[in-house]
From TrEMBL:
GO terms for molecular function: hydro-lyase activity; iron-sulfur cluster binding. InterPro entries: FldB/FldC_alpha/beta. Belongs to the FldB/FldC dehydratase alpha/beta subunit family. This is Benzoyl-CoA reductase/2-hydroxyglutaryl-CoA dehydratase subunit, BcrC/BadD/HgdB. Its cofactor is [4Fe-4S] cluster. PANTHER family: 2-HYDROXYACYL-COA DEHYDRATASE,D-COMPONENT (PTHR30548:SF2), 2-HYDROXYGLUTARYL-COA DEHYDRATASE, D-COMPONENT-RELATED (PTHR30548). Keywords: Iron, Iron-sulfur, Metal-binding. Gene3D superfamilies: 3.40.50.11890, 3.40.50.11900. It holds the Pfam family HGD-D.
Length: 416
């Protein structure tokens, strides 16, 4: 048994002692940080090595200082938190790290034993299970949106009521209009007021403008990076594509993420020319699924060209009126509204990247992902790119049919 699984068993044996579990998780994150710092994998580009360290550090800082943190989801407007020096902890990242610790099964079973439906997304069940066991210390604030994930609102409402922590749910209209922008902007002004009230500090509008300015510079680099993706072979593992969610969403607007994208563009410029077969992923990547790890991580034959989730918004935000600009960003997200908007973005990305194949891994519990599968399959057929969809779980490893996945994945890759 490997070291991580041994450590996971030690954590599981102490689940009735939350303070000790907290210390074990904190020690594990610290050890991981120093391990990737001093034992660099030479196959990993400098930019991704930097992102790896920064993501681990961000999770650790959020957990060790809950009174200066806010729980959010992937699509929450964290620009306000960054501008006020509040640490965001997002559900999806925390649950992924707990799956990396191999304790997600215990946390999920705990959530279900406390009344959570077995059809609820495992990202949310893992997070709720940690909360139920008092492993997760309550934050000062919670913030989510009505976008995309139908589990967000009930999960955050439950956690807010359980912990007695203020929650703000931002309602995002499906369609873009001037009235919709005004409606969301008004809510964002209220969010800023709530944050000031809870954290006892003022939001500096100039600091918020600086965050948005940094975000715009970052997004310009994202677009530049995309110009190289179709010509270069770059991402070595699925884990790094998922780490990119820290950079493309919750922490975008920070100077550290701007620096990461500067490094990323420099690295991809130097990357080898395209070789082997490139795969574009829809939505999420099953980074813990053995078959996918075997075929894609540091592979000579196949490599990851990206995923649409990391490019759900590519435009600039109005720096002069950041509240309006962020409102427009939320409404115009390619995952918000009708699926035609998502399909249009996928088509735009695959025309630029020119992948050899498209894979959609339908995460159990994600109705949004599964519901659009055949529409995306039709798009792949129209553009003449082989398409594979598989059902499974990105967090709960017990829900993946390893034998069936291998058979279908091997047949797909052999066809390429």
């Amino acid at each position: 048994m490997d070291t991580v699984k041994i450590y996971a068993n030690i954590i599981k044996e102490n689940m009735d002692r939350p303070e000790k579990v907290n210390k074990l998780i904190n020690f594990g994150l610290t050890a991981a940080y120093y391990y990737v710092t001093f034992f660099k994998d030479k196959r990993t580009p400098k930019s991704l090595h930097y992102l790896n360290k920064y993501s681990i550090k961000n999770i650790k800082n959020s957990l060790t200082n809950p009174q200066n943190s806010a729980w959010v989801n992937l699509f929450a407007p964290s620009e306000f938190l960054i501008a006020m020096d509040i640490k965001p902890l997002f559900i999806e990242a925390y649950s992924s790290f707990m799956s990396g610790f191999f304790i997600e099964d215990y946390l999920i079973d705990t959530a279900e034993s406390r009344g959570m439906s077995n059809t609820l997304c495992s990202y949310h069940k893992t997070f709720i299970g940690a909360s139920e066991l008092d492993i997760l210390k309550k934050p000062k604030f919670m913030m989510t949106t009505s976008m995309i994930c139908d589990a967000n609102i009930p999960t955050f409402k439950y956690l807010s009521k359980k912990h007695g922590v203020p929650l703000y749910i931002i309602d995002i209209p499906y369609k873009y209009s001037k009235d919709a922008v005004v409606y969301v902007k008004k809510q964002l002004l209220e969010v800023a007021g709530k944050l000031e009230e809870v954290f006892k500090r003022k939001l500096d509008i100039d600091k918020l403008r600086e965050v948005v300015r940094t975000e715009n510079k970052t997004r310009a680099l994202m677009r530049e990076y995309l110009n190289y993706v179709g010509e270069k072979r770059f991402l070595p593992t699925m884990t790094f594509e998922m780490y990119m969610l820290f950079a493309s969403h919750v922490l975008i607007g920070s100077k550290e993420i701007l620096h990461f994208y500067e490094m990323l563009v420099e690295d991809i410029r130097k990357a080898p020319e395209r070789s082997g077969k490139s795969i574009f992923f829809i939505h999420l990547l099953p980074m813990f699924e053995k078959n996918f790890k075997d075929y894609f991580n540091f592979s000579d034959k196949f490599y990851i060209a990206g995923s649409d989730l990391n490019y759900d918004f590519l435009d600039e935000i109005d720096e002069n009126d950041p509240f309006k600009g962020i409102a427009e960003k939320l409404i115009l997200n390619s995952f918000n509204g009708e699926i035609n908007r998502k399909v249009a973005r996928i088509k735009e990305l695959i025309e630029k990247i020119k992948p050899d194949g498209i894979i959609q891994f339908c995460h159990l519990g994600c109705k949004q992902s599964m519901g659009g599968t055949f529409i995306i399959k039709n798009l792949a057929s129209e553009v003449g790119i082989p398409f594979l969809y598989l059902d499974g779980d990105c967090v709960d490893k017990r829900n993946n049919q390893e034998g069936q996945n291998r058979t279908r994945l091997e047949a797909f890759l052999e066809m390429l």
